[in-house]
Write a structure and sequence with these properties.
The protein is globular. The protein has a single domain, classed as Alkaline Phosphatase, subunit A (3-Layer(aba) Sandwich). By secondary structure, the protein is an alpha/beta fold. The strands form 4 sheets. Strands 1, 2, 3, 4, 7, 8, 9, 10 and 11 form a 9-stranded mixed sheet that branches. 25% of the residues lie in helices and 16% in strands. It starts with a strand and ends with a strand. The protein has 13 helices and 17 strands. The longest helix is centred in the middle third of the chain and has 31 residues. The model has no long low-confidence stretch (mean pLDDT 97).
Length: 510
């Protein structure tokens, strides 16, 4: 059996047509869902990319792996799915990136790997090199095809063809200057297929696609696939001033320039037409990814590997896309953390679950345990997550399963600490934790007031009930749940191992 592990960057959880999205079309992922299991309440455990992906690859909550920012080193004592799966003789590969930063301890200060966070996940056998956040494989491909490259290679993702942008009177959002057939998404899928074709033993590959991550510029014909004027409304208060009243943290992010920020990276444009154009391109990039995955799925079928390959599709985090006057991924609102998850298990015992949708709370820390159980490997004590394999063979939710979802966000910024200065908090106090179930959502800040939302009746999280006397007991109950969760998920270290007369014995606590 093989494993194809696919991530698409910054993909909101509702953006699949099989989930009833009113606009977006994802026929190939719908096909995967029809033959697999879709998890409708799946969440990331952190943002931005590196903290989230560290949780994804290690099965650990941020409170334990402590990769809090892009560029924070990952402690080398932690294992991951790539290291573990070698124990079964699997060959592994990476097409894309894992946003991994090397642990500097024991390395020469001149080691080139300490100047970026684009190292592949430790344990990967082969990978596509990254330089300044751009795939060198793609850059060489573009050079061979005669493209004139910009001085800043990242601009390859955002340079448009000449014309008038939609919000300024253009007919459609301007397309990417690079054609879809030459886009990085297509090149990575081609490389992945070539690698799979060359394998003669069991394999696992991580196809880590950048899109639909910004810049939100889609190549033709995907730029014109969705009419910006017909898209769903932006979920936010009428004015930034009204939105800002919800919480000091939110107020500071929405008014970052006012408080001396070097870059105001999270405030969405005041121009709703610009946001609609970006959303149209965001959806277009998603459909492009879907089409490229359709090619990959067809390849697996044609090469006789469709029915012996576990396929996992998910994302690292979501995107605010103007909701609550925010852009990017941050904070505590659901759109930044709710993400898709589809798993197709080819085994005969999973046939009864084909096409099913699971509404139990699942988390990205569950992915590593799932892959390890699939190949009959034990799950390391470090993993905070659970294997999802029981859901692939039965509609019955296990008795031990979680009743809520959890995530964390660390908003310290070593280079632009305007939040720390304005809110008068230390770097280690720039943290929030979230516990959310189907009725309430509680947000706890280390050194700022908490938040409480009735997400059952206020799904867009507009009304903070934390200071409402009628909800004081609810807030207390959820604060206690939060404390219990953190206690239950403290770094286990060696607590699950006992030195007996016959040597070390290990028993997992869940």
């Amino acid at each position: 059996m093989n494993i194809l592990f696919i991530t698409a960057d910054q993909w909101r959880g509702e953006c699949l047509s099989c989930l009833g999205h009113p606009v977006i079309k994802t026929p190939h992922l719908d096909h995967l869902a029809n033959q697999g299991v879709t998890f409708t309440q799946h969440y990331a455990q952190a943002t931005p990319c590196a903290p989230s992906r560290t949780s994804l690859h290690t099965g650990m909550y941020l409170q334990n792996h402590r990769c809090v920012l892009n560029g924070t080193p990952v402690d080398r004592r932690f294992t991951n799915w790539a290291i573990e799966i070698k124990k079964k003789g699997y060959i592994s590969s990476l097409f894309g990136y894992t946003d991994s930063a090397m642990d500097p301890r024991g390395l020469s200060p001149n080691d080139a790997r300490l100047s970026h966070y684009s190292e592949p996940l430790q344990g990967i056998d082969s990978f596509t090199p990254i330089h300044k956040d751009v795939s060198l494989l793609w850059i060489e491909y573009l050079k061979e095809r005669g493209y004139t490259l910009p001085n800043k290679l990242w601009d390859c993702y955002g340079e448009t063809k000449a014309g008038i942008e939609w919000e300024h009177g253009g007919d459609v959002p301007l397309p990417l200057a690079i054609s879809s057939s030459d886009h990085e998404t297509s090149v990575m899928v081609d490389a992945c297929m070539d690698w799979i074709k060359a394998q003669n033993q069991s394999w696992i590959t991580h196809l880590s696609l950048l899109r639909p991550h910004p810049p939100f510029v889609a190549p033709e014909p995907y730029n014109s696939m969705y009419d910006p004027s017909t898209l769903d409304d932006i979920v936010r208060k009428p004015t930034i001033e009204e939105e800002s009243q919800q919480h000091p943290y939110l107020e500071c992010q929405l008014n970052a320039k006012k408080y001396g920020a070097i870059v105001e990276k999270y405030r969405a444009s005041d121009n709703t037409q610009e946001i609609r154009r970006k959303k149209a391109s965001y959806y277009g990039l998603m459909t492009e990814v879907d089409d490229q995955l359709g090619r990959l799925f067809d390849f697996l079928k044609q090469n006789g590997q469709w029915d012996n390959t576990l396929i996992i599709f998910t994302s690292d985090h979501g995107e605010q896309m103007g909701d609550h006057w925010l852009t990017g991924k941050l904070g505590y609102f659901d759109p930044s953390y709710h993400i898709p998850l589809i798993i197709r298990d080819p085994r005969q015992e999973s046939k009864p679950m084909q096409g099913k949708m699971i509404d139990a709370f699942t988390e990205n820390i569950d992915i590593m345990p799932t892959m390890l159980e699939f190949v009959d490997l034990s799950i390391p004590s470090q993993c905070d997550g659970y294997s999802l394999m029981p859901f692939l063979t039965s509609a019955q939710t296990p008795d031990y399963w979680r009743n809520e979802v959890h995530w964390e966000f660390d908003f310290r910024d070593w280079f632009d600490p305007y939040l720390e200065k304005h809110l008068n908090i230390a770097p280690h106090q720039c943290t929030l934790n979230v516990i959310r179930d189907n009725h309430y959502k509680y947000v706890h800040f280390t050194a700022l007031p908490p938040l409480l939302f009735d997400v059952k009746n206020d799904p867009h999280e507009f009304i903070n009930l934390a200071n409402d006397p009628q909800y004081q007991l609810v807030a207390l109950q959820y604060a206690q749940k939060m404390l219990s969760w953190r206690m239950n998920h403290d770094d286990p270290g060696l607590t699950e191992t006992f030195l007996s007369d016959s040597g070390p014995v290990t028993r997992r606590s869940h």
